[in-house]
Design a protein that fits this description.
By secondary structure, this protein is of the alpha/beta class. It has 26 helices and 21 strands. It folds into three domains: 216 residues, 3-Layer(aba) Sandwich (Rossmann fold), CATH 3.40.50.300; 172 residues, Rossmann fold; 200 residues, Up-down Bundle (Four Helix Bundle (Hemerythrin (Met), subunit A)). The strands form four sheets. The chain has an eight-stranded mixed beta sheet, with helices on both faces. A six-stranded parallel beta sheet has the order 9-16-13-10-12-11, sandwiched between helices. Strands 17-18-19-21-20 form a five-stranded mixed β-barrel. The structure holds one DNA strand of 9 nucleotides. InterPro entries: DEAD-box_helicase_OB_fold, DEAD/DEAH_box_helicase_dom, DNA/RNA_helicase_DEAH_CS, HA2_WH, Helicase-assoc_dom, Helicase_ATP-bd, Helicase_C-like, P-loop_NTPase.
DNA sequence: GAGCACTGC
C-alpha cells in the first residue's frame, strides 16, 4: 500500500484497475469485449470469463486486509453472483459462519440465489439460500451464502445486534440509498467497532464511493497506510451509448417524447425504444398520440408496437413488455421510473429520457408527504441511458440541453432526508439506539423531520417523554411490519375486541391497487367499486371487499368479475397472516366484534387521530385538519368522494397533486377525539405543544 | 369537486 497523498483507488499492480476506468465511466462510453458467447462452456469456464474474475485475487486481498471494501461495480461485471462465491471459496463460510448479500428488492434476492445455486450445482435452500418477507428459503445447518433484502437484515440485527452468524456482509446496490440501506450502513459501522473480525463489502456507483469511504474509514491520522477502507473499481460489460442532447430546451417533454420516438422510428435502424416519463397519465397521452401517428404512417416503415409500463398496470399487461416482437416490428415501451432499476427489458437500443421523475417529498411542518415532479439527477440520467447499451451499441436522447444536464444535482437526495421517519426511528429505538441525534447517519435527516417523527411516536405511546421505548407497546409496534399508526390500530383493536376486523383492514391498506387499473374500462371499474362501498368510509369498504373475497373462496374468477386485484388480495392475505402471527407471538387475544363498525372506527381513530379533519363551512368539500387547520380535500378514489361530505373524518395519508387530498378516509364522531385520544387533543394549544417538544428532545 | 413515482418489513 503506498502512502502517497491520494491512495483512494487501490493499484496493487499492472493487472489491477485504476482511475482510468473511473474516468471512462464518466464519459459513459465503455467499450468491452464480446457479449455472452459463453453459453455452451462449462460453468467454471463461464465464471472465469466474467469481467470480475480478473479482480478476484485483488478483491480477496482487500477483504482480508481491510475491514471495509468498496467495490465500484459496473453493470454486467458479475459481482453480485461471483463475489459471494469467491468469499466462500477462500473460507468465509467455515466455522459455522455465513456470507450475507443484501439487495434492495425481493426479486433480486430470489433470482440471484437461484443463479448462484445453479452455478454451484446445488439445490436452492441448502448451501445457497435466501430470506425475504413471506419466503424463508435457507437452512440453519447448511446455508453458507444467504441473499436477503436490506429490510430483512435490519430485522435480523434486532434479534442479533452484532450479527454473530456472519463473517462477511455484502451490501449490494448501496448507491440506491433507500432508507433501509442507509440504516443498514449506519448500523454496520456500529457493529464493526464491536466485531473486528467482521468484513463489509459495499457495492456502489462511482459517485458515492468517496462518501462511503469517508464514512467507514476510522483512520484519523494522515498516514494512509492505516486506512481501514479501500476502493476497488471493477469494469463491467456493456456497450457504448451515444448521448444526444437537445440544442434548445423543449416546452412539453411528453410531446417531445412522441416526436423523438417517431423520428427514431423513421430514420434509425431496427432496435427497440424505451422512453421514460413520470406517470401513468403522461404515458397514456403519449400512447394515444403514437397510435394515432402510426395509423396513417407510410407502409415503407417498420411496424411499431407501443406498450405502457407502470406499477399500477395489471400484471398481465405488464408482462407484454417482455415479449419479443416479430422481426418487422419495433417495440416501443413507455415507462415510469420502474424501468430505471426495478425491471430490465431486453433488446433496448434507444432510450429517451424526459429528464423528470415523480418523487416523494415530505413537509415536516405539516407532516404531509407529497408526490412532486422533479428533475432527475445526473446519476439517474446515466442509469437511464445505460439501459440502451445492454445488447449492442445504443443511443440515448436526453430531452434537455447539455448545459442543463451539467446543472442537475449529481445524485438524488437520499430517502432518509425526504420522508416520514417515524417507522425508521421506532426501529432504531428497538435496536437500542439511545441518542437519535448522535447516531452515525451516512446522511443526517433534517432535525424537523426527526422531531415530527418523535412527536408522533410519543403520541402513539411508543416512546415516553424521555424518548425511550415504552414497554410493552413500543416493542410490539416495532415488531410489526407496519407503519406505527397502523400498528397502534391493531393494539387498540386488542383492547376493544375487534382484532379479526383490524387485521384485515391493516393488511388491506398495505396493497396499492385494490382494484385493477384496466385502460378503457374505467367506468366498469367505478361501478364495481360502488358495490362494496360502506357509508362509514374507505376502511370499512376495504373490510367489505376482503370479506367478499373470502366468502367467494378467494377465487380468481370472483376477482375478475369485479375488477379486483387478485394478486394484491393474495398479498393482503399473507400480510394478514403475518400480522396475526405477531399478535400470537405476544400472546394477544384475537377476537371479532361481529361486524360492529362503530367499534372498528373507534380503533382506527386511536391509530390515526393525528390525521383528523373537520368539514369547513366555506366552500364545498373543503376540510381543515384539527391539528393545525391545514386545508385538505377528499381524494377522488375515496368512496366518500361522491357522497354528501361527512362532518368529521380521519385519514391514512395526504397525497398532493393539484390539491392536497386525503386518502383512505373514515367518518368519525368528534367526541371520540376527546374520549379516545385525550392525551393528544386535550392539551393541544400551541404553547403546550412547544413545551412538550422541548421536553421530548 | 376529478386522480394514482417506486420499493421494503
Amino acid at each position: 500500500m503506498s502512502s502517497s497523498n491520494k491512495p483512494r483507488f487501490w493499484k496493487p499492480g499492472t493487472s489491477a484497475p485504476g482511475e482510468d476506468i473511473v474516468e471512462e465511466r464518466k464519459s459513459e462510453t465503455v467499450v468491452t469485449s464480446s457479449y455472452n458467447s459463453n453459453a455452451s462452456l462449462p460453468i467454471l469456464q463461464q465464471r472465469e470469463r466474467l469481467p470480475i474474475y480478473k479482480y478476484r485475487n485483488n478483491i480477496l486481498y482487500c477483504v482480508e486486509k481491510f475491514q471495509t471494501t468498496i467495490i465500484i461495480g459496473e453493470t454486467g461485471s458479475g459481482k453480485s453472483t461471483q463475489l459471494p462465491q469467491y468469499l466462500l471459496e477462500i473460507g468465509y463460510g467455515k466455522h459455522g459462519y455465513m456470507i450475507a448479500v443484501t439487495q434492495p428488492r425481493r426479486v433480486a434476492c430470489v433470482s440471484l440465489a437461484n443463479r448462484v445455486a445453479d452455478e454451484r450445482g446445488s439445490m436452492i435452500g441448502r448451501e445457497i439460500g435466501y430470506r425475504i418477507r413471506f419466503d424463508d428459503c435457507w437452512d440453519e445447518n447448511e446455508t453458507k451464502i444467504k441473499f436477503l433484502t436490506d429490510g430483512m437484515l435490519i430485522r435480523e440485527i434486532m434479534n442479533d445486534p452484532i450479527l454473530r452468524q456472519y463473517s462477511v456482509i455484502v451490501l449490494d446496490e448501496a448507491h440506491e440509498r433507500s432508507i433501509q440501506t442507509d440504516m443498514a450502513l449506519g448500523l454496520m459501522k456500529k457493529i464493526l467497532k464491536k466485531r473486528k473480525d467482521l468484513r463489509i463489502i459495499i457495492s456502489s456507483a462511482t459517485l458515492d464511493a468517496q462518501m462511503f469511504f469517508d464514512f467507514f474509514n476510522t483512520n484519523e491520522t494522515e498516514d494512509k497506510s492505516k486506512d481501514t477502507v479501500v476502493i476497488m473499481p471493477v469494469e463491467g460489460r456493456s456497450f457504448p451509448v451515444d448521448i444526444h442532447y437537445l440544442v434548445d430546451p423543449c416546452q412539453n417533454y411528453v410531446k417531445e417524447t412522441v416526436n423523438t420516438i417517431l423520428k427514431i422510428h423513421k430514420t434509425e435502424p431496427p432496435g427497440d425504444i424505451l422512453a421514460f416519463l413520470t406517470g401513468a397519465d403522461e404515458i397514456e397521452f403519449a400512447l394515444t398520440e403514437l397510435i394515432e401517428a402510426t395509423r396513417d404512417m407510410s407502409s415503407k416503415y417498420q411496424k411499431m408496437k407501443v406498450l405502457p409500463m407502470h406499477a399500477s398496470l395489471p400484471a398481465g399487461h405488464q408482462l407484454k413488455v417482455f415479449q419479443k416482437t416479430p422481426h418487422d416490428t419495433r417495440k416501443v415501451v413507455l415507462a415510469t421510473n420502474i424501468a430505471e432499476a426495478s425491471i430490465t427489458i431486453n433488446g433496448i437500443v434507444y432510450v429517451i429520457d424526459c429528464g423528470f421523475v415523480k418523487m416523494m417529498a415530505y413537509n415536516p411542518e405539516a407532516a404531509i408527504s407529497s408526490l412532486v415532479i422533479t428533475k432527475v439527477s445526473q446519476a439517474s440520467a446515466v442509469q437511464r441511458s445505460g439501459r440502451a447499451g445492454r445488447v449492442r451499441a445504443g443511443k440515448a436522447y436526453r430531452l434537455y440541453t447539455e448545459s442543463d444536464f451539467e446543472k442537475l444535482p449529481a445524485s438524488q437526495t437520499p430517502e432518509m432526508q425526504r420522508c416520514d421517519l417515524s417507522p425508521a426511528i421506532l426501529q432504531m429505538k428497538a435496536l437500542g439506539i439511545v441518542n437519535l441525534v448522535k447516531f452515525d447517519y451516512i446522511a443526517k435527516p433534517p432535525a424537523q423531520n426527526m422531531l415530527q417523527a418523535v412527536e408522533l411516536l410519543y403520541a402513539l405511546g411508543a416512546l415516553n417523554n424521555k424518548c425511550q421505548l415504552v414497554e410493552p407497546d413500543g416493542v410490539r409496534l416495532a415488531e410489526m411490519p407496519l407503519h406505527p399508526t397502523f400498528g397502534k390500530m391493531l393494539l387498540a383493536a386488542v383492547e376493544m375486541g375487534c382484532t379479526e376486523e383490524m387485521l384485515t383492514i391493516a393488511a388491506m391498506t398495505q396493497i396499492q391497487n385494490v382494484f385493477l387499473n384496466v385502460p378503457n374500462e374505467k367506468h366498469k371499474v367505478e361501478k364495481a367499486k360502488r358495490l362494496f362501498s360502506a357509508v362509514e368510509g374507505d376502511h370499512l369498504t376495504l373490510l367489505n371487499i376482503f370479506i367478499a373475497f373470502d366468502e367467494n373462496n378467494r377465487s380468481q374468477k370472483f376477482c375478475r368479475q369485479y375488477y379486483l386485484n387478485y394478486k394484491g388480495l393474495l398479498r393482503a392475505l399473507s400480510i394478514r397472516q403475518q400480522l396475526r402471527n405477531v399478535l400470537t407471538k405476544f400472546k394477544l387475544p384475537i377476537e371479532s366484534c361481529n361486524g360492529n363498525g362503530r367499534t372498528v372506527r373507534q380503533c382506527i381513530t386511536k391509530g390515526i387521530f393525528v390525521n383528523a379533519a373537520k368539514l369547513h363551512h366555506t366552500g364545498i368539500g373543503v376540510y381543515k385538519t384539527v391539528k393545525d387547520g391545514h386545508e385538505l380535500h377528499i381524494h377522488p378514489t375515496s368512496v366518500l368522494y361522491r357522497e354528501v361530505p361527512p362532518q368529521w373524518v380521519v385519514f391514512n395519508e395526504v397525497v398532493k397533486t393539484n390539491k392536497e387530498y386525503m386518502q383512505d378516509i373514515t367518518v368519525i364522531e368528534p367526541e371520540w377525539l376527546h374520549t379516545l385520544t385525550s392525551h393528544y387533543y386535550q392539551f393541544g394549544t400551541n404553547r403546550e405543544i412547544s413545551e412538550k417538544r422541548a421536553k421530548i428532545c
